[in-house]
TrEMBL record, chain A:
The keyword Transport does not apply. This is Amino acid/amide ABC transporter membrane protein 2, HAAT family. The keyword Cell membrane applies. CDD domains: TM_PBP1_LivM_like. The chain crosses the membrane at residues 63-86, 98-117, 124-143, 173-191, 222-247, 259-284. The lineage of its organism: Bacteria, Pseudomonadati, Pseudomonadota, Alphaproteobacteria, Rhodobacterales.
TrEMBL record, chain B:
It is a multi-pass membrane protein. This is Amino acid/amide ABC transporter membrane protein 1, HAAT family. PANTHER family: ABC TRANSPORTER PERMEASE PROTEIN, BRANCHED-CHAIN AMINO ACID TRANSPORT SYSTEM PERMEASE PROTEIN LIVH. One of its GO terms (biological process) is amino acid transport. Keywords: Amino-acid transport, Cell membrane, Membrane, Transmembrane, Transmembrane helix, Transport. It is found in: Cell membrane. It comes from the Bacteria. The chain crosses the membrane at residues 7-29, 62-80, 92-114, 139-159, 191-211, 264-282.
Automatic annotation (TrEMBL), chain C:
It comes from Albimonas pacifica. Pfam families: Peripla_BP_6. PANTHER family: BLR6548 PROTEIN (PTHR47235:SF1). Keywords: Signal. Belongs to the leucine-binding protein family. InterPro entries: Leu-bd (IPR028081), Peripla_BP_I (IPR028082). Residues 32-371 form the Leucine-binding protein domain. This is Amino acid/amide ABC transporter substrate-binding protein, HAAT family. Residues 1-20 form the signal peptide.
Automatic annotation (TrEMBL), chain D:
Residues 6-254 form the ABC transporter domain. One of its GO terms (molecular function) is ATP binding. It holds the Pfam family BCA_ABC_TP_C. PROSITE patterns: ABC_TRANSPORTER_1, ABC_TRANSPORTER_2. CDD domains: ABC_Mj1267_LivG_branched. Keywords: ATP-binding, Nucleotide-binding, Transport. The keyword Secreted does not apply. This is Amino acid/amide ABC transporter ATP-binding protein 1, HAAT family. Coiled coil: none annotated. SUPFAM superfamilies: P-loop containing nucleoside triphosphate hydrolases. One of its GO terms (cellular component) is plasma membrane.
Length: 348, 290, 381, 272
């Protein structure tokens, strides 16, 4: 246990950080984000950008699944809505990108009310299946209204100009996404420490008791749907900008599964876990590729006989390995490491 | 009129495939509380093994069937023992995600062991055309409907008469209590995995004969999933019914309404039915363990 | 702070494409790159294509390389996932610093890559999925080898209209840009010939069961069926037609024109039409190509050769020819220019291909028919 | 005094063919401590569930300060002044003690979803006020040392106290305590007894409790209501009820009956 910090006021209890060590870490993280565009090459920059976009989506799903305990397989659908919610007004109608970002959150949020209201009677796997169904239906609708969505051909998305700042280079895009990530984390932390966040936790841990405490289950589950899909929609818009092209093909159903896997690998119910999970799962295929290319020509010789499938196998093994050996995810691993650090050299 | 009958027949055939796989989902869920997301992949692997046996035996249907069934059971038992059972005390979501990890491995593994190409199964009897009073179907399509009927009958008998079936119900209700009563829960769960493997294996192999064998066969699992939900997650027989309903609906929607709607028709039905019956048509209310 | 340094770096990053025009070239080597699906079912095309590129490189290297430099290839697998295509592209251009790109995955992935390609200016060959947005309007550095789906369908439709006058048509297409291109081609043909479409529908990619679609085909009395799927879907449609006992003239398209499809369909595949701009393997040109492949590739690899090997080979030959023209001054600008203006390259498996000042070879197509006995296609007279 | 604080009139609950609570009528006056006793399965918790809005009664009327609660939404019972604890702990076990108590303040707070994202201005002031109230309760229940512990890691007795704190945080007029001292040792039980009296005397909260600990019931109740098989046996002052032959028989008989008709595990499991 850390010690030596005694709180004098209620406001201190409310603060997001409670020690200088934590503040120092945050400063380091922010400094890393700020300097990364100058240091990293385009490939790594792109990779980290993708990790951050994925993390935004992961934080969004965490609100619903990690905090409120509602399992969703509809991540893909809300991302698609967010991407089109941004692309259509900005690229087709010429609206300001800021309005686009707002719609990228609001459109999926509105849709989540449509999915949420009828789904509220359902729990667990039954809820998972209606969210899954909604994802398929969203894709179908996008293809069914080509007048609005340009159907299967998709919509090109330019890099935006936000408040006079033209996002042009990969470095700029990195910064834009980093800003969104930081804002998302702040917003999510604020929600977590509000009455809303506590109501979600209460529902997840014991819904009957939550109701007796005055939490209207329907309303707050809907809130979770709305907040979650708003954030997920934003990640969809960012992903669209990242790809510079929005089509339903860009959002395979697998994303829904990967999003859940991310929370598990990172550690359910924690924002840091969602971020770590995103870093891990986006980075994994790259690391595996690097290992493969380290073998050079011998690996290339294997190429046409299917060595790439080995990557898929490894990916699955890592997920299972985590679940089996480290069920609390990377956050659990981190906490264990901390304990060792603070307690060393004695166990207790 | 003939058009309608043909739509119904082809809907029934594909619905039977969904139904068999849906039953596999349901029986594992019933016995272990687990949803096995790798069920479609396991069916696909059995189909590929059948393909290999058929190639090696010049398309001998009996050897192929026997070999594939034996394989599917052994394979499922191995998966259950090596991957699933050690996770028995983990939270349910973690166990479900484990099966998702398995699914990823199986998909890549299939392409590693075999290839990514489409194949003909090479079983003449299965792909032979049979004329049923003006409606032509393939042998394998009759086979899959028969297999579904047999599976449903077997399950009904099993749960009603077999001690094992009753034990399975007990395990599903309360693992700990059942264990106290002397029910060997591990044995019951193995049985469920085995039965599921046979059903989804038969569905996979027969689908591969009547339609096509390719590494995208696993998607049958995803398509059958709504059938399980429709019937009720813990209702094995209900799932069979759900599969047939979805197969026939898809075909009727494709045949009379917009074919584009066909692929989402199943999902639309699910949402509609769950609104009225939140636990599926035949599900019991108790399953709220997530 | 060190903002001046940041600004300088940023400027360098912005200017990078122009300054590093000869990236990927050392005294002894030229590094090329490509992104394509090497895993999953789309690997059928990606791997075959990759073999074609390697064949062209091996052949050129055996003949002394380009200006004495050996050609090397870095292949990135995107698994047909667009975000990974983009990421791989940025890696190839920014980290591996390849000199040119021999392929950018499938059609959707290539279209999504346009902004990246445009911004970088790297010479890029597009031998897979030649969609119009890739060459209309032309980009300086993007070269599309082949023929558009629309024009291919147009020719196929004109042929069928002439062969089966007054027939009822059925059209089943995928609900994506590929399907849209085919529908456009039929529309064009309608203006020039008498075509009566009795049944038209679209399906979502990945659909496996086509029974209701084919029943409607039967019900509508379709005599000419455009099976606009790729691989699995075409197999499913033809087998379903066989089951229902209907025998329309069935026309398929080049993305699925591989022997595996014929094998999987079985005897019912005999006589189905296809259209393509590369020669069938069973033709003399095809056999000569196989002969060449045996020289440079392993036996396993030769077994995986299909039409995509030919398109990959031809397009890489075009790129090599341009680089050879620029051997003394191996820059992007020169290579782009040489590609645009270079003479036609005749690989035998395609009509002599050249860009003739443009960015598109506009290759002529041939109508062919399947022969189940030999699992191959033969040109229709 | 006009209407009693809580008034039950002919309250009945049936599950299918089973009548769990049968025509129970009783009342709690302001400032009273009333206990409900009865053997297992007598319908006590079902009665609590109806009073706290978890289950609707099949028949009968529940009034709070003369207001019929039938039309009140389950989550709004707390607004009318009903707080409760649960028989088996129902805490939010992943949250800290403070978090749990703050959930009790939920209905008193107004921060909207959008405001919550920003944590600025009113939401912040409101949060500080809520935490001040939570600190008072923590102090009152003497659980300062465990304030920031995650509830799931606490001992049973501590958790019970946190649950009491959470119920108090809702500012109830009537507090329903469901076997609050079950599983506690003598010392812990005495602490709780003291808290219950303090809650009534200092905070002016009336208390209705289900209790098996007869010493506690006899010591602090103003009135006792005895149930068996869902129906009232008797009601009155503790000593009277204790001496009532029906009550004695219910307890002894129930024990004998329980021994005989202990349901087979299978059936029990399925019912659960």
């Amino acid at each position: 246990m850390r010690s030596g910090f005694y709180k004098q006021t209620i406001a201190e209890h409310l603060a997001l950080t409670d020690s200088w060590t934590q503040r120092a870490w945050i400063a380091v993280a922010l400094a890393a984000l700020a300097t990364a565009p100058f240091v990293l090459d385009t490939y790594l920059l792109t990779l980290v950008t993708l990790m951050m976009i994925t993390a935004v989506g992961g934080i969004g799903l965490n609100i619903l699944t990690g905090w409120t305990g509602l399992i969703s397989l509809g991540q893909t659908g809300f991302m698609v809505l967010g991407a089109y919610g941004y692309a259509i007004p900005v690229e087709t109608w010429g609206w300001d990108p800021l309005a686009g970002f707002l719609l990228a959150g609001l459109v999926p949020a509105a849709a989540s009310v449509l999915v949420g209201i009828p789904s509220l009677r359902l729990t667990g796997l039954y809820l998972a299946i209606t969210t899954l169904a909604s994802a398929f239906i969203v894709v179908h609708l996008v293809l069914e209204f080509p007048g609005l969505t340009n159907g299967a051909s998709g919509i090109f998305v330019n890099r935006p100009t936000v408040l006079g700042w033209t996002v042009f280079t990969d470095q700029d895009l990195f910064r834009l996404v980093a800003i969104f990530l930081v804002l998302t984390i702040l917003g999510a932390l604020n929600l977590r420490r509000s009455r809303i966040g506590r109501a979600w936790f209460a529902i997840r841990d014991k819904d009957d008791a939550a109701r007796v405490m005055g939490v209207d289950l329907r309303t707050y589950k809907l809130y979770a749907f709305v907040a979650s899909s708003f954030v997920v929609g934003l990640s969809g818009a960012l992903y669209g900008i990242f790809l510079s092209f929005v089509t339903v093909d860009g959002f395979p159903f697998l994303l829904s599964i990967e999003a859940l896997a991310m929370l598990i690998v990172g550690g359910m119910g924690s924002i840091a876990g969602a971020v770590l999970g995103a870093v891990f799962l986006v980075g994994l295929p790259e690391v595996v590729s690097m290992v493969f290319s380290a073998f050079g020509d011998s690996a290339r010789a294997l190429l046409s006989t299917g060595a790439h499938e080995v990557k898929g196998v490894l990916y699955g093994l890592v997920i299972i390995g985590f679940l089996r050996l480290q069920p609390e995810g990377l956050m659990g691993l981190w906490r264990d490491a901390q304990r060792v650090w603070t307690l060393w050299p004695l166990r207790y | 009129m003939n058009y309608l009958i043909e739509l119904l027949v082809s809907g029934l055939a594909v619905g039977a495939v969904y139904g068999l796989i849906a039953m596999s989902f349901a029986i594992i869920f019933k016995a272990t509380g687990l949803l096995n997301f790798a069920q479609g992949e396991m069916g696909m692997i059995t189909a590929y093994v059948a393909f290999s046996i058929a190639s090696a035996t010049d398309g001998n249907p009996w050897l192929t069937a026997a070999g594939a069934i034996v394989f599917s059971v052994l394979f499922a038992l191995a998966v259950e023992r090596i991957v699933i059972r050690p996770m028995v005390d983990e939270p349910i979501l973690a166990r479900i995600m484990t099966t998702i990890g398995l699914a990823v491995i199986f998909r890549s593994g299939t392409m590693l062991v075999w290839d990514a190409l489409p194949h003909d199964m090479g079983l003449a009897a299965g792909s032979a055309l049979v004329d049923l009073g003006g409606v032509r179907v393939r042998g394998a399509q009759i086979g899959v409907v028969v297999a579904l009927a047999v599976a449903v009958a077997a399950m009904l008998a099993f749960f009603r008469y077999s001690r094992f079936g009753i034990a399975m119900r007990a395990v599903a209700s309360d693992d700990a209590t059942a264990r106290l009563m002397g029910v060997k829960t591990a044995r019951v769960q193995q049985a469920a995995w085995g039965a599921a493997a046979v059903m989804s294996g038969i569905a996979g192999a027969l689908f591969a004969i009547a339609w096509e064998l390719s590494p995208s066969l696993y998607a049958l699992g995803l398509k059958s999933f709504p059938a399980t939900i429709l019937g009720g997650l813990d209702s094995v027989v209900g799932s069979a019914f759900g599969g047939v309903v979805i197969g026939i609906t898809e075909n009727l929607v494709g045949g009379y309404l917009s074919p584009g709607l066909k692929e989402v028709a199943g999902f639309v039905i699910i949402i509609a039915i769950l609104m009225v019956r939140p636990y599926g048509l035949f599900g019991e209310k108790r399953i709220e363990r997530l | 702070m060190k903002s001046w340094k940041g600004a300088a770096l940023l400027a360098a990053a912005l200017a990078a494409p122009a300054m590093a025009a000869d990236q990927g070239v050392t005294d002894t080597e030229i590094l090329l790159g490509e992104v394509e699906p090497l895993t999953g079912p789309p690997g059928l095309l990606g791997i075959a294509h990759n073999l074609g590129v390697r064949l062209a490189l091996a052949e050129a290297n055996a003949a002394g390389g380009v200006g004495g430099r050996t050609l090397k290839l870095v292949a990135e697998d995107d698994g047909y996932v667009t975000s990974r295509t983009i990421q791989s592209l940025r890696k190839l251009i920014g980290v591996d610093k390849v000199f040119a790109l021999t392929a950018v995955s499938g059609s959707g992935q290539a279209v999504a890559s346009i902004p990246v390609l445009k911004q970088s200016g790297i010479p890029t060959m597009i031998p897979i999925g030649p969609l119009p947005p890739l060459y209309e309007p032309p980009m300086d550095n993007v070269f599309v080898v082949g023929q558009s789906y629309t024009e291919g369908m147009h020719q196929l439709a004109l042929f069928l209209a002439e062969k089966h006058p007054g027939a009822k048509w059925g059209v089943i297409t995928q609900d994506d840009d590929y399907g849209a291109a085919l529908r456009e081609g039929i529309e064009q043909a309608k203006g020039e010939a008498q075509i009566e479409v009795a049944f038209e529908t679209r399906y979502a990619r990945g659909q496996k069961d086509f029974s209701s679609e084919m029943l409607r085909v039967k019900d509508a009395g379709v005599e000419v069926l455009i099976a606009g799927g790729i691989i699995s879907e075409n197999i499913a449609m033809v087998k379903e037609a066989e089951k229902l006992g209907i025998t329309p003239a069935i026309a398929t398209f080049w993305p699925g024109r591989v022997p595996e499809v014929l094998k999987a369909i079985g005897p019912a595949s005999d006589g189905i039409y296809a259209v393509d701009y590369v020669a069938p393997i069973q033709s003399d040109a095809g056999q000569a190509f196989l002969e060449l492949a045996r020289k440079h590739l392993t036996e396993d690899e030769v077994a995986r050769v299909n039409r995509y090997t030919m398109t990959g080979y031809t397009s890489t030959r075009l790129l090599i020819a341009a680089m050879q023209t620029c051997a003394e001054d191996l820059t992007w600008a020169c290579t782009n220019q040489a590609l645009a203006d270079g003479p036609a390259v005749d690989t035998g498996v395609m009509a002599p291909a050249a860009f003739a000042g443009g960015r598109f070879t506009n290759s002529p197509v041939t109508i062919m028919q399947a022969d189940y006995e030999t699992l191959s296609y033969a040109p229709v007279d | 005094m006009s209407a009693p604080l809580l008034k039950l009139t002919g309250v009945t609950k049936r599950f299918g063919g089973l009548t769990a609570v049968n025509e129970v009528s009783t009342h709690v006056d302001a400032g009273e401590i009333v206990s409900i006793i009865g053997p297992n399965g007598a319908g006590k918790t079902t009665l609590f569930n109806m009073i706290s809005g978890v289950l609707p009664p099949t028949e009968g009327r529940i009034e709070l300060e003369g207001r019929d609660l039938a039309r009140v939404a389950p989550h709004d019972y707390v607004r009318h002044g009903i707080g409760r604890t649960f028989q088996n702990l129902a805490l939010f076990k992943h949250g800290t003690v403070v978090d749990n108590i703050l959930v009790g303040r939920h209905w008193r707070m107004k921060t909207s979803l959008v405001e919550a994202v920003f944590h600025f201005g009113r939401p912040r002031r409101e949060e500080i006020a809520a935490r001040e109230r939570a600190e008072e309760i923590i102090e009152f229940l003497e659980i300062e040392t465990i304030r920031d512990k995650v509830v799931g890691t606490l001992s049973y007795g501590q958790q019970k106290r946190v649950e009491l704190g959470r119920a108090l945080a809702t500012d109830p007029k009537l507090l329903l305590l469901d076997e609050i001292v079950a599983g506690m040792n003598q010392e812990e039980t005495e602490d709780i007894a003291r808290f219950i009296l303090d809650i009534r005397d200092e905070l002016g909260v009336s208390i209705l409790m289900i209790e098996h600990d007869m010493h506690l019931v006899m010591d602090i109740s103003d009135r006792v209501h005895a149930l068996n098989f869902g129906a009232t046996i008797t009601e009155g002052r503790p000593a009277e009820v204790q001496a009532h032959p029906g009550v004695i028989e219910a307890y002894l008989g129930a024990k004998a009956a329980a021994a005989r008709a202990e349901p087979a595990p299978l059936l029990k499991a399925r019912a659960g």
